[in-house]
Amino acid sequence: MEVRGHAGAGPGQETADRAGAPPGRGVLEGAFHLLDVLSAAEGGAGLSELARDAGMPKATTYRLLRQLASLGAVQRHGQRYLVGRRLARLGDAWQPDPRLQAAAREPVRLLSSLTTTVTFLTVLEDDRIRVITATRGDITEVPPVLPGSELAGATAAGRVLLMHRPDDDAPPGFTPAEWRRARTAFRRAGSIAADHQDVLPGICCVAVPVRGPDGEVVASVSALAIRPAVPAGLSELVLRASREITRNLGRADARSAE
């Protein structure tokens, strides 16, 4: 990413820098952009690294970091900055769409009961795969999947949601070549993503998109089996659960319109 220095800066850029925001951005937008960069830096990052990755002058980056640290959104350890506890607490307060959660709860529970799988509904939020609702039935080999939990983009649920982004570029976690292969396989499978022990040994998963009443993809429903191969008939049952969630969303819309 291009780094904008002070050399050759015009009056508008100087004004933006004095305000504590990168050129062309407001203070709030600049702060959130910097937090996005910082959240992706595992183990934190130094001032120069953050300025480079955010495309901001070091002086602007430093001023924003000081302001964010005073609010508890950023913490500093030595020469490295990390996401602060206050921001982490706010992130934990994320709430799923209650309408979607209600529409999926019974189909997800029934799917788990019929297939003896861990089933869950996920949504895409800024390239992050977040769980809306989940159940593992009698399966104890895996820990509970809680609402708000994040899944990797390489999972079947992640691939289903990432395939329907408006952006064709490779998302985080995929090289361009890997993303092209994933898109080709997804199209061949008719919008069904299957994980054949690709993420974890001994675990397979099937995921399909969930569409809203308007036809737009709003979520993904998945069934995870503790098996060396995808059980026969699992894909059809996941598709059936997806259609039932769509019907429930339609009924909810009809009730709210009355």
From TrEMBL:
Q: Which UniProt keywords apply?
A: DNA-binding, Transcription, Transcription regulation
| Protein name (database record) | IclR family transcriptional regulator
Q: Which organism is it from?
A: Microbispora amethystogenes
What phylogenetic lineage does the species belong to? Bacteria, Bacillati, Actinomycetota, Actinomycetes, Streptosporangiales
Q: Does the keyword DNA-binding apply?
A: yes
Report domain HTH iclR-type positions: 25-85
SUPFAM superfamilies from the entry? GAF domain-like, Winged helix' DNA-binding domain
**Domain IclR-ED, first and last residues per copy:** 86-251
Name the source's superkingdom: Bacteria
The record's annotation in Pfam families points to: HTH_IclR (PF09339)
